[in-house]
Design a protein that fits this description.
alpha+beta, Alpha-Beta Plaits, 7-stranded mixed beta sheet, 10 helices
Length: about 290
């Protein structure tokens, strides 16, 4: 039996829709895999009552099928489903890394990304890599149709998760069909700024690069109190604030000494909107890790 810890992730980061992602130090899923004649799945932990254990309907079942690696798979969820923190991706990433090792399939971490993404398609309807890539590789990742680029980065972050449910399918339905040319130019500039900031471990550049005028405003309508939370975080010292993945988690970049103040400001702002929330004071972290 092998045990794999796969981290939560934050995708998009505002300007990098369906492309950018980062691994977070916390929270994480823990997945245990053991060889078996056929795949079975057991789920415990955060939101486990909402996660199907039928291998045909669970991300890890799709991964086991793709790798031709049947197993008894036990998932301990540390990442709430429908949180915008890559919950389903973390399980798929952990299963891909663990089953690849258990069955000695010989895939590299980069080669496991599209396999884990097929698992993501089970719940989101499409095989996107922006969450599974950082969960497998760690750091800051840029997912393209022809592969993934990863960069080690060290940026302090606050992830604030409100008690609101926003499904990936709902969040995709509100994405605009197009954008004006000036919005495209602005987004390219912001994405480039963010990428340079990651390479330099510069929270100020990363924060400036998070701004997005295309997708984020539409998704913000699904999150009660988002505008006030954004403003409160910036006032408390955040260098940039945006929606994590499909939401409802709100992610803020900041300097190390400001994480506590930013977390408190975001929690207080959600509370003033009548929404309970919890905050993770975290940073960009490592990818999936195996244990015997």
């Amino acid at each position: 039996m092998l045990t794999v810890r796969a981290p939560a992730t934050s995708a998009n980061l505002g300007s990098g829709f369906d492309v950018f992602g980062v691994a977070l130090e916390r929270p994480a899923d823990v997945v245990r895999v053991e060889k078996a004649a056929e795949t079975t799945i057991t789920v415990t932990g955060a939101g486990s009552q909402y996660i199907p254990e039928d291998p045909r309907k669970n991300t890890v079942g799709a991964v086991a099928e793709a790798l031709e690696a049947p197993a008894h798979i036990r998932i301990d969820k540390g990442i709430r489903p429908a949180s915008g923190l890559g919950s389903s991706a973390a399980s798929a990433a952990a299963a891909a890394v663990g089953l690849n090792e258990l069955y000695d399939r010989g895939y590299t971490r980069e080669e496991l990304v599209p396999i884990a993404a097929e698992g993501e398609a089970v719940v989101s309807g499409a095989a996107h890599s922006d969450n599974v890539a950082p969960s497998i590789l760690g750091g800051f990742t840029i997912a393209r149709h022809d592969g993934v680029t990863s960069v080690d980065a060290d940026i302090p972050l606050v992830a604030c998760l409100p008690e609101i449910v926003v499904s990936t399918r709902d969040a995709r339905r509100v994405v605009p069909d197009g954008a004006r040319m000036e919005q495209v130019v602005e987004t390219v500039g912001n994405a480039a700024t963010l990428a340079v900031g990651m390479a330099r471990d510069d929270p100020d550049l990363v924060g400036r690069g998070m701004h997005d005028s295309v997708v984020t405003p539409a998704r913000a309508e699904l999150i009660d109190g988002y505008g006030n939370v954004h403003a409160s975080a910036v006032e408390a010292g955040a260098t940039g604030v945006t929606i994590s993945g499909a939401g409802p988690t709100v992610i803020a970049a900041c300097h190390e000494g400001d994480r506590g103040a930013v977390a408190s400001a975001m929690l207080d702002s959600f509370e003033r909107s009548g929404v309970e929330a919890r905050a993770f004071k975290t940073r960009i972290g490592r990818g999936a890790e195996m244990f015997d």
